[in-house]
């Protein structure tokens, strides 16, 4: 994640905006996936066993990130009682979590231009990519705080 963020900034400075978005997307994916794993690992044994399929999805490099993101968001949204103490401890509100999800969705959409035939909804220019990078620090920090609260590395 750290290397992807450094690369995103290097690309941005070199005015390689699409490459910067791709690397920022890689960092975002890494943070979300590790958060999901930490959340599952923080559950008591019986509940963790019920999440074995979800954990397998997060570990599978073939499953798409969109599916993994929905899985993690759904886990937090529907398991608020299980994760409410964690959210409180991390000092991250549910609204901040939802904003991080929206930012990640926009980033994913913008990054998906690398796939043939996809057009971005957000142009790869200095202003837009700078906004994604700057706002990303707040969202990634919130997700990392949640991961740390869940006992993640």
Notes on the structure:
This protein is mainly alpha-helical and 153 residues long. Helix content is 77%, strand content 0%. It is built from 8 helices and no strands. Helix 1 runs antiparallel to helix 2 and helix 5 runs antiparallel to helix 7. The model has no long low-confidence stretch (mean pLDDT 90).
Q: Quick recap of the structure?
A:
The chain contains 8 helices and no strands. It has 153 residues and is an all-alpha fold.
Tell me, what's the shape?
globular
Task: Report low-confidence residues grouped into runs of 5 or more.
Answer: none
Question: How much helicity do the residues have?
Answer: over 70%
SSE sequence, one letter per element: HHHHHHHH
Fraction in beta strands:
under 5%
How would you state the average pLDDT, rounded? 90
Distance between the termini: 12 Å
The helix tally amounts to: 8
Main sheet makeup: none
- Using only C-alpha atoms, the radius of gyration works out to 16 Å
Helix/sheet category: mainly alpha
Count of DSSP strands: 0
Outline the fold blueprint.
Blueprint: H1 2-13, H2 17-41, H3 45-50, H4 52-59, H5 65-78, H6 80-90, H7 94-111, H8 126-149
Which descriptors would you attach to this protein?
globular; 77% helix; mainly alpha; 8 helices; 153 residues
């Amino acid at each position: 994640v750290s290397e992807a963020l450094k690369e995103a900034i290097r690309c941005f400075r070199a005015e390689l905006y699409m490459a910067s978005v791709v690397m920022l997307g890689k960092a975002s994916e890494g943070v979300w996936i590790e958060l999901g794993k930490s959340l599952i690992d923080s559950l008591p044994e019986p509940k963790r066993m019920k999440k074995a399929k979800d954990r397998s999805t997060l570990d599978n490099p073939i499953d798409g990130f969109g599916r993994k993101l929905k899985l993690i968001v759904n886990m937090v949204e529907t398991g608020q009682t299980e994760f409410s103490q964690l959210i409180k401890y991390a000092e991250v509100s549910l609204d901040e979590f939802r904003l991080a999800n929206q930012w990640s969705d926009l980033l994913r959409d913008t990054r998906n231009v690398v796939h043939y035939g996809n057009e971005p909804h957000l142009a790869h220019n200095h202003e837009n990519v700078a906004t994604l990078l700057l706002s990303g620090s707040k969202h990634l920090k919130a997700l990392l705080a949640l991961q740390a609260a869940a006992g993640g590395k």
